[in-house]
């Protein structure tokens, strides 16, 4: 099965309906990751099918739980989950926050090549970043444990009256128990990623202030 068919099947399994043009841009993003990976070491994944499932589908599987329209992806790396989300939700404004210079350069290039007019790249550490309006959703994947996530990025949700959303693997019992006040767990959603057996969860955190 070719990659375009695998993408279409995965999107159907996720219940996400996208124009052909957007599907083509998702594949273009995948190709960009593979091209830049040779020099920038963006991901350990090399096989296109693995990037499709473990990065693109993994990012899009959380869509039903994410409230727009102002999103910040903390420690975005190669743009995950921020770029897939921005591609399929062009009406959202997505900030990709990444402190590593090389990765931020990749993100700028991806923004230009994919014509992501709804994306802004901020090459800064999250703890130093302030935004005038704050965010509806402050999201992270493979960034830190929950306690550090709220310590470093919690202000961005407080400022915007929003939520933090942490993408996790197995149900994170210990991390949940260590969440410091004033933050409270609002929900832990199990997430099913097409083609992936491994467990995934999305932890929604509310600033209790
Ligand atoms: C393990 S990577 C995960 C990247 C991406 N979210 C993913 O799921 O593939 C964590 C990223 O967070 C970035 N990072 C670490 N500390 C940061 C900070 N304080 N502020 C912003 N980015 C940070 C790193 O440079 C790295 O790219």
From TrEMBL:
Record has rRNA processing as a keyword: yes
Keywords annotated in UniProt: Cytoplasm, Methyltransferase, rRNA processing, S-adenosyl-L-methionine, Transferase
RNA-binding listed as a keyword: no
Binding site for S-adenosyl-L-methionine: 75, 80, 126-127, 141
Cell compartment(s), UniProt: Cytoplasm
Domain of life: Bacteria
Any Pfam family the entry gives: GidB
General function of this protein: Specifically methylates the N7 position of guanine in position 527 of 16S rRNA.
Protein name: Ribosomal RNA small subunit methyltransferase G
């Amino acid at each position: 099965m070719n990659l375009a068919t695998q993408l279409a099947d995965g999107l159907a399994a996720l219940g996400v309906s996208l124009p052909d043009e957007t599907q083509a841009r998702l594949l273009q993003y995948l190709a960009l990751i593979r091209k830049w990976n040779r020099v920038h070491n963006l991901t350990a994944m090399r096989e296109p099918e693995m990037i499709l499932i473990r990065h693109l589908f993994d990012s899009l599987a959380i869509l039903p739980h994410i409230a727009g329209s102002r999103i910040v992806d903390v420690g975005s790396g190669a743009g995950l989950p921020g770029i897939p989300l921005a591609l399929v939700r062009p009406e959202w404004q997505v900030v990709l926050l990444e402190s590593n210079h090389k990765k931020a350069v990749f993100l700028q290039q991806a923004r230009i090549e994919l014509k992501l007019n709804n994306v802004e790249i901020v090459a800064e550490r999250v703890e130093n970043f302030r935004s005038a309006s704050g965010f509806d959703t402050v999201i992270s994947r493979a960034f830190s444990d929950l306690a550090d996530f709220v310590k470093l990025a919690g202000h961005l949700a407080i400022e915007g009256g929003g939520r933090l959303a942490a993408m996790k693997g197995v149900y994170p019992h210990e991390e949940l128990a260590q969440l410091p006040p004033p933050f409270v767990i609002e929900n832990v959603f199990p997430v099913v990623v097409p083609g992936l057996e491994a467990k995934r969860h999305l932890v929604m955190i509310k600033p209790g202030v």
